[in-house]
Amino acid sequence: MRSIFVKELNSFFSSIVGYVAILVFLVACGLFIWVLPESTILRSDGYATLDSFFNWAPWFLMLLIPAVTMRSFADEFRSGTIEWLSTKPLTNTAIIGGKYLASLVLVAFALLPTLIYVYTIDNLSVIVMGKTVIHVIDGGGIAGSYFGLLFLAASFTAVGIFCSSLANNQIVGFLVALFACYLLYSGFDALSRIPAFAEGIDYYLSMIGMAFHYNSISRGLIDSRDVIYFLSVILLFISLTRLSLNSRRWDTATQD
Q1: Is 114 exposed, middle or buried (0-12, 13-18, 19+ CB in 10 A)?
Q2: Which of 93, 106, 109 is nearest to 4 (CA)?
Q3: Model confidence over 195-207: pLDDT tens digits?
Q4: What is the domain partition of the chain in residue ranges?
Q5: pLDDT, tens digit, 9 for 90 and up, residues 94-131
Q6: Contact by Cβ (8 Å): 86, 249
Q7: Position 212 pLDDT exceeds 50
Q8: Has this prediction a pTM greater than 0.85?
């Protein structure tokens, strides 16, 4: 697993596509959080929060993560190196785990510079009363939101890895992962708003979606049910990726 992990990191940072994806993510965050008047956090009425950032961040991650994971397996299938990997003393679980962890580290690397937003909003929220300095930043809510964002990123990454294992083309892998992430994050919430589901089913439909659990953690209270949900999604899509790789090898063996 370690060799795959290092290989994926080196491959990502040796390509300009990786840097462009991270740069676009950070520029988009900066524009929406600080510049655009409709979404800037500077409009918060008396509250030092990063709610605007955490509302927009899932949508930016929905674009960043498929761009990071799209080449994970699609590029291996296209170039034929998946056959070379299959000859190595590596299990499918080790290959998937290495690629998954590398992609997750890259996403975390992209999120790391956003911590400067916390420092900035903390300094902007200082109230000086004589010799007393009071910080009115909502630290608990921000910490909970970052935990939720990390769980969401880990889930999106698992989805992206699975979608990449279904395609031989990176663009197809990106589009499939983008649609799957959107459906899992917002699709069920949209379904729950249909009047036909307004008699109790709407609540359970919204619980299937990631947005429900992400918003729950973002309130600052980490509920074990939300953690179990995200861990279950991650394990589900990693298992599906393993099945996808096994089926491809079975098809190849049958053709031979």
Answers
A1: buried
A2: 93
A3: 776 666 777 788 8
A4: 2-255
A5: 888 999 999 999 999 999 999 888 888 777 765 555 55
A6: yes
A7: yes
A8: yes
Query: Burial of 174 by CB count in 10 Å (0-12 exposed, 13-18 middle, 19+ buried)?
Result: buried
